[in-house]
Write a structure and sequence with these properties.
Oligomer: single chain
Strand content: 15-25%
Distance between the termini: 31 Å
Helix content: 25-40%
CATH architecture: 2-Layer Sandwich
Length: 91
């Protein structure tokens, strides 16, 4: 459980096309079935701002299956320490 808390989702909204491939790979990895509804990872659509937002669900176990076939760099899980160092470099 402690390992989960050390990872965070890093998402580039400029690269996400909203194809929901991440959802399909998640469901395939966990249930061996292509089914968006069974995915632990969701793409939420913000219609007013025309944005796709990547969101791991409560059941997400951070296995990173969702990024296996996804557009490189659009979503990734990083160690909390890496995110902190990366954001500090940008300030």
């Amino acid at each position: 459980m402690a390992e989960k808390l050390k990872k965070v989702l890093v998402f580039d909204s400029n690269k996400c096309t909203g194809c929901r491939t991440c959802e399909l790979t998640c469901s395939m990895g966990h249930f061996e079935e292509l089914n968006h509804r069974k995915s632990y990872f969701k793409i939420l659509k913000h219609k007013e701002r025309d944005l796709n937002i990547a969101a791991p669900g409560i059941k997400c176990d951070y296995c990173e299956e969702c990024i296996r076939w996804y557009l490189p760099g659009a979503i990734k899980f990083m160690a909390l320490e890496e995110v902190y160092v990366s954001s500090k470099d940008k300030i």
